[in-house]
Design a protein that fits this description.
Number of helices: 13
Structural class: alpha/beta
Radius of gyration: 18 Å
Largest sheet: 8 strands, mixed
Order of helices and strands: HEEEHEHEHEHHHHHEEHEHEHH
Strand content: 15-25%
Helix content: 25-40%
Shape: globular
Number of strands: 10
Distance between the termini: 42 Å
Length: 320
């Protein structure tokens, strides 16, 4: 798996532009972030970790290809905590990742545990989005002693009857995925939030988001390893009909999650209806389900205060 072509170079102009865009977004929210680079087990890569704030630790695991920056608007409402955001391999200026031939479960658990071990964190709550939620569920099952609770934002990928929209499933098809990739990638920074419409987000939400977030979406997609990382992930976890069989988690597996688990599920999330969400939640031992009205797949973009408040209250309850 060690492939030097996937290692990002600090002096690459594309890396510098992405880093500058991220810093401007952090400045917009008045965040002072500490950046760490953590060895990623036996994969030979490093994971970039963004730390913000002080207090009891909480780990954040992003969705999509693994960029942390979309979670920054939520972090503004998670005050009084040490926020440890994992830029998953392949995203967030962590080294690139060719996901095609990996054991996905081992990869998922090692991603989280590598960070916990390096930072000497015994047991933590996790806030996670989309496929990051799927990876966090696997970690909670396989390493239950390291995870105290889960807050799952949006539909976690590949659970029972959930499935990605058709456009994302099409990205799993070799050849066609390259054509679609060129079509969906933004040509200008000011158009880079348009893809969020397909994730269930309204024009009203898009108009409220800062231009600094749009710049991040644009410049992170220009990183040299973004294409191989994102398309290989789509091929590894999806098929045109749904999920890869070895990635899909069924009821019996989900019932192994012992930790308190809160779902923040948008009513406009195209990955699964509220009925499906309630069905998924019922598979967990200790679920708490919230349907967020008029919210999409990244529900905190529509409801930042509500998501932050619910997550903070839940973590506090699980602590007592």
């Amino acid at each position: 798996m060690n492939n030097s072509s996937l290692i990002l170079k600090d002096n690459d102009p594309r890396v510098l532009k992405a880093r500058n865009a991220e810093q401007k977004l952090l400045d917009y929210y008045q965040f002072d972030a500490e950046i760490r680079h953590i060895p990623f087990g036996n994969f030979g890569y490093t994971i970039r970790v963004t730390e913000i704030g002080h207090g009891e630790p909480v780990v954040l695991v992003p969705g999509n290809t693994g960029d942390t920056f979309p979670l920054i608007p939520l972090m503004a409402h998670l005050t009084g905590r040490r926020l440890i955001a994992i830029n998953r391999p392949g995203g967030g200026m962590s080294d690139g990742m060719d996901h095609r031939n990996i054991n996905f479960r081992e990869f998922a658990v090692q991603t989280v545990i590598s960070v916990l071990d390096e930072l000497k964190l015994d047991r933590v709550p996790i806030i996670a989005h989309s496929i990051g939620g799927h990876m966090s569920i696997l970690t909670a099952i396989d390493r239950p002693e390291r995870v105290s609770s889960l807050v799952l934002l949006g539909v976690p990928g590949n659970l029972i009857s959930t499935r990605p929209p058709a456009a994302l499933r099409a990205l799993s098809i070799p050849g066609l995925n390259n054509v679609l990739y060129k079509l969906v990638m933004s040509k200008k920074p000011d158009k880079s939030l348009e893809s969020l419409r397909f994730m269930g987000h309204s024009e009203e939400t898009l108009e409220k988001l800062p231009s600094e977030l749009a710049d991040c979406y644009y410049y992170f997609q220009q990183l040299p390893n973004y294409k191989i990382s994102s398309l290989s992930l789509m091929r590894r976890i999806n098929t045109m009909w749904g999920s890869q069989p070895d990635v899909m988690l069924q009821k019996e597996e989900l019932n192994r999650v012992q930790q308190p688990t809160m779902f923040l599920w948008g009513t406009n999330d195209p990955f699964g209806s509220i009925d499906i969400g309630e069905e998924v939640a019922s598979c967990f031992q200790r679920p708490e389900f919230h349907a967020l009205q008029n919210a999409g797949h990244l529900p905190w973009l529509d409801k930042p205060e509500e998501c932050g408040s619910l997550a903070m209250k839940f973590m506090e309850q699980c602590r007592s």
